[in-house]
Amino acid sequence: MKNRFSAGRLTVYIVAYGLVAFMLIPIIWMFWVSFKPINSVVTVISELLTPPYGVESYIRVQESSMIWRWTLNSVIVGIVQTASTLLLSSLAAFAISRIAFKGKTFIFLLILAGLMVPVEATIVPLYELIVRFGWVNSYPALILPGIALPLGVLILKQFYDAIPNDLMEAAKIDGANLLRIWWSIFLPLSRTSMAALAIFVFVQSWNNFLWPLLVANDQSMMTLPVAIPTFQSSFTVDLTVPMAANVLASIPALIFFLIFQKQIIKGIAMTGIK
């Protein structure tokens, strides 16, 4: 029995590490190619593994692109959109969970209905609003349409429903109003759920491509998912410079994943995303 268990466990480890290695191959190849001289042959293994190596491609990227501006745009959009989404989702979840008002059930069902509406179905009306407001090529156009997240309201409402009502009643006896109760009781207790939701929202914002492609035509307002393919299209033959740009664009996301990997796994488990 022990031998069977050990053999089965060993098989699982072999398969798991094999899958990890398989997924790491493109990343390793990207890093490796980025250090080859410009116009090098990188599709032949023997040429790829032999010197010389250098940082010429990274210098070219910084000279011929706005890589740091694009990174800054992605960071600003990601942070502001995440903070705004957490604030609105938390307040909406608190109101639906703990405040009695007419039409509460209908509003909650309306929010849930938003989960069934594909993003692509809202692109045209949202874009028309952005054009009418004159927000094309601006941060409001990149940030505001993404701060309403029905999934965030659902996750936080479920958590708030589980908080004992005695805590809220005790706070009311002490003279706390609803906003104070939300700030002093519900927010601290939902720290784990908020962290998982924040990571989900930030990663979604960081990887968003379709909406920034529509509303950010100026290169100075592009985010990384839109700007990097645009930059790569000017290097149809050489792969070293585009790979260097990809490495620079990946560094913030890699750092983010390494620091918050436990919370990311927890967030995936909470939201049921595969």
UniProtKB/TrEMBL annotation:
Membrane topology: Multi-pass membrane protein
Name the UniProt record assigns to this protein: Sugar ABC transporter permease
Keyword Transmembrane helix: yes
One annotated GO biological process: transmembrane transport
Pfam families recorded: BPD_transp_1
ABC transmembrane type-1 domain boundaries: 71-260
Family: Belongs to the binding-protein-dependent transport system permease family.
Transport in keyword set: yes
GO cellular component term, pick one: plasma membrane
Keywords carried by this UniProt record: Cell membrane, Membrane, Transmembrane, Transmembrane helix, Transport
Chief place where the protein resides: membrane
Recorded superkingdom: Bacteria
Regions that span the bilayer: 12-32, 70-94, 106-127, 139-160, 181-203, 239-260
Compartment(s) where it occurs, according to its Swiss-Prot or TrEMBL record: Cell membrane
